[in-house]
Design a protein that fits this description.
- This protein has 1 helix and 2 strands, in the order αββ.
- A two-stranded antiparallel sheet has the order 1-2.
- The longest helix has 7 residues.
- A hairpin with a 2-residue loop joins β1 and β2.
- The protein is mostly beta strands.
- The protein has a domain of 35 residues.
Length: 66
C-alpha cells in the first residue's frame, strides 16, 4: 500500500505575493503599535526604534521600525 503525502502548501498568485509583502511598492512606512517583533510585518526591522541623537542612542519601544 502506498502512503499518500498530504500537500499542505498552496500556490499563490503574484498579486497575493505582493499583498503579503506590503503591495507593489513594498512595505510602506507607517506607525504600528507592537509588543514584540512578531507584531510587526516581515518587512520591518522589528519592534522598537533607536534614534541616534549626536552619538547618544535613544530607544523608543512599542512601535514597529521600518
Amino acid at each position: 500500500m502506498k502512503k499518500q503525502i498530504l500537500n499542505l502548501g498552496k500556490v499563490i498568485s503574484k498579486n497575493e505575493q505582493k499583498n503579503i509583502q506590503g503591495g507593489f511598492f513594498g512595505c510602506q512606512p507607517q506607525l504600528l503599535q507592537c509588543d514584540s517583533d512578531r507584531d510587526c510585518p516581515p518587512c520591518s526591522r522589528g519592534c522598537g526604534i533607536t534614534i541616534d541623537l549626536d552619538g547618544d542612542p535613544f530607544f523608543i519601544s512599542g512601535v514597529c521600525a521600518f
